[in-house]
Amino acid sequence: MPCPVVDLSQGGFAFECLDGVVVRAGDTLHGFVLTVDDEPVYSGEVRVSATRVDGNVTVVGASYRTGELDIDDILQLRDVKSWGGQGDRRFDLPDANWRVDGNHEFRALVSEFRLYLDDAGRYLNNLESSLPWRVLHDDTDTPARRAVMTRVRAEFVPEFVRYTEQIDAALRLAKNDDEKRALKEFSLRHLQDHFMSAPFMERCRSKPLGYPGDFECMRFLYERQFEGVNLLAKAIHMGSVLTRGAEAVRQRKDLIKSLMINLIRSWTRPEPLRIASIAAGPAHEVAEMLRDWTGPMPQLEIVLFDQDKLALTHAHARVHRLADRFGGAVKVTYLHDSIKRLLNDPMLLSGFGPFELIFSCGLYDYLRFNTAATLCRHMFANLTEGGQLYVGNMVPENPCRWFLEHHLEWFLLYREPSELLDYGRAADASAELSIVKEATGINPFLVMRKV
Fold first, then answer.
1. Domains of the chain (ranges plus CATH)?
2. Burial class (CB in 10 A: 0-12, 13-18, 19+), 24
3. Rounded distance, CA 394 to CA 412, Å?
4. Label partner for 199 (CA 20 to 30 A): which of 80, 210, 217, 256?
């Protein structure tokens, strides 16, 4: 019958004697089994060395007849038994937050993608080791560097994009938020280390300026598409900035650039043509328009409005030099102020307008409906008769949502085109409304025309 152990040492132990059982000093007990945490640590004869009464309990002291007990073994046994939080965890890991039933396609694709990146890493590391450092890490344009970039773009990027889009589609089959949370953890465990080697992804995730998609992220999308500490990092960086969602950002820039060029080309009025960019960021569309314009320039006044001073500083460094080419015909104002102020003060832009064109490419991805309608109303009020407001907003079909949300903690307020029209109507019922799509269809614009 089991008896509780009271004390334990190398040479002996003490236990509580069962009621009705009489033992005396000098007795030998046969077939005795001593267990610690349900594990047998001694079996055989023991000799009773002493007894004492402690309250209503008889405590028996005994010694081992066949050797001593190794106390280190006992302590190690206790360590093993208590490992993982006092015995409240087991190897089946019931609290593993990556576990989820079903969703086999998502999990299979994520696992395959990890293996693909592992294999690509070994292949690219071998290629990198065969090349001089300057070929990959010096920005000088050389035939070898161009050849590497061409091969990465032709061979690695399509597979990278294919996996991201298939995983995104599989994620949309998850039934509820609990499943999505588990799938996010599964995805992070498999892919995050690889993804964070890419400068674009790492910056979007870390948000050093406090928000995603800052002007440096935009520079990666527009200009710096082959960045990273090694060739695999450069390949992942290139893959991430050549996804269809990233292409939509470049296409919306090109759409606005073409719109400005056509507007300037058709401008015949004596007064200046006025254009405003709200949440302008690095103002790439403006810089490229000025860079590509040939021929005489009408009087042009551009306002670049942003609450990020660093973004405006970067824009100024590029746009100011390009504007100077036109001998005073182009005036650019860099307006550093908050979107909140613009929401509260509809007259904030009035001293610079009225405008023939106001556009905002990426801001509305973060605005709630009422805020979006209010800001549209205030910008629309600053248009000339016939002037147009262009407001971009990503649609839910963006095939990059999986890695944006799971790996970059980058969340947008996606809207169908019909919802863009809704906040246009709420802003001003008199506006002529339409939807204009950039080439991918992922980042359409609400257009409000003042009639």
1. 5-82 (no CATH), 104-242 (no CATH), 249-449 (3.40.50.150)
2. exposed
3. 8
4. 256
Tell me how crowded residue 183 is: count the other CB atoms within 10 A of its CB: 23
pLDDT, tens digit (0-9, with 9 covering 90-100), for 271-319: 999 999 999 999 999 999 999 999 899 999 999 999 999 999 999 999 9
pLDDT single digits (tens) 110-126:
999 999 999 999 999 99
Contact of 400 with 164, CB cutoff 8 Å: yes
- Report the sign of the C-alpha dihedral through residues 395, 399, 400, 402, in that order: positive
Residue 425 tokens read as 């109507």
Exposure string of 374-386, with b = 16+ CB inside 10 Å and e = fewer, is: bbbbbbbbbbbee
Q: Which residues of 307-333 are buried (b: 16+ CB within 10 A; e: fewer)?
A: bbeebbebbeebbeebbeebeeebebe
Q: What are phi and psi of 357, to 5 degrees?
A: -145, 130
